[in-house]
């Protein structure tokens, strides 16, 4: 087997060990025993197939939306269930930045449609926001916070309208 392929399969194996729910299915183990190929190769093939189907059905917009929503939602659920507050703050920060980005994106989508590879750029940006190594959401939040605070203060100062 090619050394780069072995390295990739090794990383996928590590990922599957770190996330045991992915390798809990006996079917993958049976296929591994019958064929002699590692289950990481089958996992990669299945994941590639699913991503291809999603791409064909919904395009890159759907893929970028899923990446920006599914993993962060899963991690937010885990953060709520965990004891500490540090991960809660991380994921709340992500959702504030994600919501701000989504509103801004929908407001100027007619321009963004003309940017080549926009959804690939968006996907990389969203991954950067939530990736534990980069914690991009915290950096963006520091920049967006003063703007959001101005709007929050303005909204709080508005007296409620009387109903007639």
Instruction: Compute the CA-based radius of gyration.
Output: 21 Å
Please give the largest β-sheet. Answer: none
Structural class: mainly alpha
Question: How many helical elements?
Answer: 7
Shape: elongated
Cα distance spanning the termini:
77 Å
**The number of domains:** 1
What does this structure look like?
The model has no long low-confidence stretch (mean pLDDT 88). The relative contact order is 0.07. The protein is mostly helical and 164 residues long. It has helices at residues 3-18, 26-35, 39-81, 86-107, 109-112, 118-130, 136-157. Helices cover 79% and strands 0% of the residues. This is Protein YOP1.
Helix and strand layout, with pairings?
Elements: H1 3-18, H2 26-35, H3 39-81, H4 86-107, H5 109-112, H6 118-130, H7 136-157
Can you tag this structure with a few keywords?
164 residues; mainly alpha; 7 helices; elongated
Task: Give a brief outline of the structure.
This protein is 79% helix and 0% strand. It is an all-alpha fold and 164 residues long.
């Amino acid at each position: 087997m090619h050394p780069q392929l072995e390295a990739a399969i090794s990383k996928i194996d590590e990922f599957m060990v770190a996330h045991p729910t992915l390798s809990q299915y006996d079917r993958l183990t049976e296929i591994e025993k019958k064929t002699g190929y590692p289950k990481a190769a089958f996992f990669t093939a299945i994941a590639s197939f699913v991503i291809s189907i999603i791409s064909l059905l919904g395009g890159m917009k759907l893929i970028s939306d899923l990446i920006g929503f599914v993993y962060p939602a899963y991690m937010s659920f885990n953060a709520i269930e965990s004891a500490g507050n540090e991960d809660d703050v991380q994921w709340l920060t992500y959702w504030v930045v994600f919501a701000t980005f989504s509103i801004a994106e929908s407001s100027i989508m007619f321009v963004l449609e003309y940017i080549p590879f926009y959804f690939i750029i968006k996907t990389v940006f969203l991954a950067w926001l939530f990736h534990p190594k980069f914690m991009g959401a915290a950096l963006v939040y520091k920049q967006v916070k003063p703007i959001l605070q101005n709007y929050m203060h303005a909204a709080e100062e508005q007296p409620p309208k009387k109903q007639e």
